[in-house]
């Protein structure tokens, strides 16, 4: 009888040890998969936060002259890029890649996604922004606002804006109607989830294929 109890105890101990080993292996595999995904995202120029960052309310105006707040972003993912209509280089290049990405995504029947272009130039009116974005995709949403409101939103996405003394990007040639000279701004993009939280950032150079692959990976993790 004592031998039977001993065998049963040994079997239970073995089963518990086996379960712990399996749990450890599963945990290590998860860590490995996580590291692999993060490495892939880095290759695609993207970085995600361990937890989404909540955003404070914003007060901007779209190209139709309508108020635009966080409520307009809820329910769909949003890519946000800051620039201005008279930008000579990185802004049109980035918007062109975004246009290619967006067209491919739409044609493949994937869920809706907002592409937001926020102007850092006070001379950019809603009408100017609307006309400018038609050259890239008619579905893009153009936003403008007071310098304070634009900078408040930019700060939440870790975008620096302001005057620059040279034309090295992010400083640009002076836009018409902007007496302060060169405009400087960060050229990474922010990714906001359907709950209105900042999930991660996409760094330049922006390429349509890399944007698509990065978002596919991020959406799979969400």
What do these coordinates show?
The chain is α+β, with helices and mostly antiparallel strands and 222 residues long. It has 2 domains: 43 residues; 174 residues, Glutaredoxin, CATH 3.40.30.10. It has 5 helices and 10 strands, in the order αββββαβαβαββββα. The strands form 2 sheets. Strands 1-10-9-4-5-6-2-3 form an 8-stranded mixed β-sheet, with helices on both faces. It has a two-stranded antiparallel sheet with strand order 7-8. Helix 1 runs antiparallel to helix 5. The longest helix is centred in the N-terminal third of the chain and has 42 residues. About 9% of the residues have low confidence.
**C-alpha end-to-end distance:** 54 Å
How many structurally independent domains? 2
What is the CATH homology-level superfamily of the largest domain? Answer: Glutaredoxin
Are there runs of 5+ residues with pLDDT below 50, and where?
Answer: 24-29, 166-180
Average pLDDT, rounded to a whole number, is 84
Q: Tell me the major beta sheet.
A: 8 strands, mixed
CATH class value of the largest domain: Alpha Beta
Number of beta strands: 10
Name the structural class: alpha+beta
Rg measurement, Å: 24 Å
Order of strands, main sheet, comes to: 1-10-9-4-5-6-2-3
The CATH topology of the largest domain, please? Glutaredoxin
SSE string, helix = H, strand = E?
HEEEEHEHEHEEEEH
Number of alpha- plus pi-helical segments: 5
Q: Give the helix level as a range of percent.
A: 40-55%
The CATH architecture name of the largest domain reads: 3-Layer(aba) Sandwich
How would the global form be characterised? elongated
The fraction of residues assigned to DSSP E strands is 15-25%
